[in-house]
Amino acid sequence: MDPSNLKRNLVCVLFPGIVKNEEKAVQCLGGPRGISQVYSQPTKKRLGLSFQPDNPFVKKTFADCKKTAGVLLKVKVKKTKVDGKDTKQVISTTLLGSVKVIYKFEAMCDFQYLPVNSEGKEPQCILEKILPSGVDTFDFMVKPSPLFIVPPNFTRFDKPINYNYTDKRFVIKEHHENPDDIHRRARTERGTPLLRYTFNLDDDLATEAHAYYVKQLDIKKIMYPPLQQEFETVKKLFEERPIWSLNLIKFHTKIRLSSLKIIMPCLAIYMKDGPWRMLWVKFGYDPRKEPAARIYQTLDFRLRHTAGVHSMVMTRDKVVHYKKAVRVRQLRNEREEPQPTDDVSEGAVRFRPGMAPSQRQIFYQYCDVQLPEVEEILAVEPPPGYLCHEKRGWLPPDTDQICRDHIFRYVKQTLLATHSADLKLEQGSLESCDEDSSSDDDDEGSIPPNGSDDVSAPNQ
Predict the structure, then answer these.
(1) Which CATH superfamily is domain 1-159 in?
(2) Given the DSSP bridges, would you call strands 61-82 and 196-197 parallel, antiparallel or unpaired?
(3) Which of 164, 187, 383, 401 is deepest in the core (most CB within 10 A)?
């Protein structure tokens, strides 16, 4: 053997069959070009095999790339016959290389379909009548074609699975709880959704937390003792202010999101929609009965395309992707300090003169918009006998649009002053932004799923 061949790296493919013709076996795997494409992108493509390469109706079976450790040997054996018995003798052994990667076909490959016409005495393949050959004339499209319909789905899974034929959809296993079993206590139950309150003027709000969330909080405290101090910090915030947004609490406390997901359901109820949508309301506080709660209502602000300032601010998706792009996943030693969590910027929760928004769409609370024009509107109390509205709460009509106009005017001044060297705009377009701000309403539509690239927020 030549030990120098160990440096020669080879790739092994376990062909699911007896290979008598190597060229046909390679064509079944997609040919040299198809194999090369799979080999160059092992993390993106799987090696496909079709026992009928010319038949596009055949469902391929795929092989996964796995690491292995082996060698490829070439052994010459001499067969002789002595006294009517076959004997084998190894003449030479040659080392061809080492194998570090192997492709195994472990998926099912019994979904083979061939267009066959069985009207005659013997079944005949009609593949040539269905597929154009490339030299056919237009008559090929006019003549009636044999009916051959391929099943839309072959199978949902590539590998066989065990299936329990029971009346119940899920098999529930009984667990005998042991108070000393820390692993059982640490495992949280799945499938319990967050209680989201659909706003209406009839149903009463919950006054205390659900027992499930209180139990989860107690379990997490055992695993993570600092959670108790974080809970007290958030609880103190709700004593100072009855309604908070999740981002605003993250901005003030710098608490991890994983901890807030456990703490918040124990202190407040989440508003799914309505004037206080996407906010957390403290248990025992009903904003529908308190006119003073108007300052905590949600203001959906979206940066407009007008005056060119829309292109100066990134969308929320780009901000998140930018943060993820700079991260490099690598193994760290235990001695190294953990990376700090992503903090919420002030521009994502608060607005004041001279500040630019951190993204194109932000859900403010009216009290966090520190503009004299907005504060003057909030200072006006509702008239006696005024009832809470399902859309605009305690505020008069068109308040949201008026506040958006004020915010956009300040944003435009700040951004144009900052980017004056790189931006050239006509003076007429800038003046029309302030005078004809109501014209943007004609281009407003419903809130898109991503909530980032709309012209302006719709009136509530």
Answers:
(1) TFIIIC, subcomplex tauA, subunit Sfc1, barrel domain (3.30.200.160)
(2) unpaired
(3) 401
